[in-house]
Amino acid sequence: MPENLPIIESIEDLETFVNQVGACLVYSAREQQDITSLLASGSLVERRQCASHWAKELHLAKKAFLYPLNSQQEALVSWRNFTRAYPGQSNQSLNLDEDGLLGVISRQGNGSLRALLQASGMPAGRFNAALTGLQMKMLVTLSGSATDEDGKPMDCFDLTDNWLPDEFGI
Questions:
Q1: Half-sphere exposure of 161 (CA within 13 A, CB side)
Q2: Which of 54, 65, 157, 170 is the most buried (most CB within 10 A)?
Q3: In this predicted model, what pLDDT tens digit does every residue of 53-90 receive, in sequence order?
Q4: Contact 75, 136 (CB under 8 A)
Q5: Are 104 and 116 in contact (CB under 8 A)?
Q6: Residues near 142 by beta carbon (within 8 Å), at least 6 away in sequence
Q7: How many other C-beta atoms are found inside a 10 Å radius of the C-beta of residue 52?
Q8: Shortest CA distance to 35 belongs to which of 60, 17, 19, 58?
Q9: pLDDT of residue 169
Q10: Domains of the chain, residue spans
Q11: 3.90.79.10, 1.10.260.40, 3.50.7.10, 1.10.10.10: CATH of 92-168
Q12: CB count, 10 Å around CB of 124?
């Protein structure tokens, strides 16, 4: 690891780092800043789990914004960088599945992954692709968690505009 990069030992260190650099990747990547590589200790698997967990926690606490860049990589951005990226990302054109799912989420509001899948009427693969596409466009975001009837935790999603901190006035 280059000497000029910080070592992240806590979620508070991560928050400070993201605010300083503006944006970083969650998982290891060549020639780009990422959280996993900066974590203080643990195996690669442990550091990836920790990076993912802390990024999600910062997002849910509305201290940074987490979104997928693709199906394998996520970015954690500061609010300063979010306000620069959001207009361009959210104005991209939608495919038919994304448009349909966006309508479901607009009507239903904050919903669990299972509830949104059922309401969409899409096969799971198409639903997952549409949800990822909407997240990449910053139109839909992780908004919390719920417990399904089997007692398993499940992510919830809502329109980004509904979830944003009030100071954005969007």
A1: 9
A2: 65
A3: 999 999 999 999 999 998 889 999 999 999 888 888 88
A4: no
A5: yes
A6: 56, 59, 60, 66, 135, 155, 156, 157
A7: 16
A8: 17
A9: 59
A10: 11-86, 92-168
A11: 1.10.10.10
A12: 9
Question: What's at 119, amino acid-wise?
Answer: A
Q: How many CA atoms lie within 13 A of 43 on its CB side?
A: 2
Name the percent of the chain lying above pLDDT 70.
96
- DSSP β-bridge partners for residue 65: 77
pLDDT of res. 134:
96
Q: Which amino acid is at 158?
A: D
Residue showing tokens 């997928």 = 68
Can you give the chain as a three-state secondary structure string? CCCCCCCECCHHHHHHHHHHHCEEECCCCCCCCEHHHHECCCCHHHHHHHHHHHHHHHHHCCCCEEEECCCCCEEEECHHHHHHHHHHHHCCCCCHHHHHHHHHHHHHCCEEHHHHHHHHCCCHHHHHHHHHHHHHCCCEEEEEEEECCCCCEEEEEEEHHHHCCHHHCC
- One-letter amino acid at 166 equals D
CA distance 126 to 148: 22
Distance CA 32, CA 134 (A): 24
